[in-house]
Amino acid sequence: MVGEGGPWVFLEEASMSTLQIDLDEQTLKRLRQISRREKRALGDVAAHLLADAVRAVRLRPAEDAAEAELLRQINTGWAAERWQRYHALVAQRRAGCLTPEEHRELIALTDEREIAHAQRLEHLIALATLRQTPLDALMEQLGLQAPGYV
Questions:
Q1: φ and ψ at 147, to 5 degrees?
Q2: Of 51, 71, 47, 89, which Cα lies nearest the Cα of 143?
């Protein structure tokens, strides 16, 4: 339910707490414009914007440190030389000219790569949980795409 009277917005939903917010006229005018443009109730717009702002605020330095560490782990990858070797072995396999030793090396590298991807996904899930955002939205924010084979 939304109540308006003067420069404030009154928000109330069955599953949420009630909150009265005193707003300056300009902010209330802007909220009304957004509400009309998005064809959403004023209270819904205000609640959504407030929730976004609250999620963006860091409460503790520990959260920032945890997020930084998760981002570091997410962005950790193979060195260029390792990728080159992996791709060279894949090309040799496709050409049908892998030696048994190279085949074992390719299997080991593939296993290592799959484990690294699983760990990266664990770190992404932890970061999404920390940021209180869906995993797909986080991946979009970070410019990441799910592998095509999933």
A1: -60, 145
A2: 71
50 and 65 co-located in one domain? no
Residue 117, in any domain of the structure? yes
Domain count, the chain: 2
Residue 30 pLDDT > 80: yes
Measured distance CA(69)–CA(127) in Å, rounded = 10
pLDDT confidence of residue 100: 96
Core vs surface per residue 120-141: b (16+ CB within 10 A) or e: beebbebbbeebebeeeebbee
Q: Which H or E element spans position 4?
A: strand 2-4
* Claim to verify: residue 37 and residue 104 sit in the same structural domain: no
Tokens of 19: 């909150």
Structural contact between residues 42 and 31, judged by C-beta atoms closer than 8 angstroms: yes
* Residue 147 covered by a domain: no
Would you place residue 2 in the very low, low, confident or very high pLDDT band (cuts 50, 70, 90)?
very low
Model confidence, pTM: 0.56
pLDDT of amino acid 14 = 47
Cα pseudo-dihedral 36, 37, 41, 47, rounded to 10:
-130
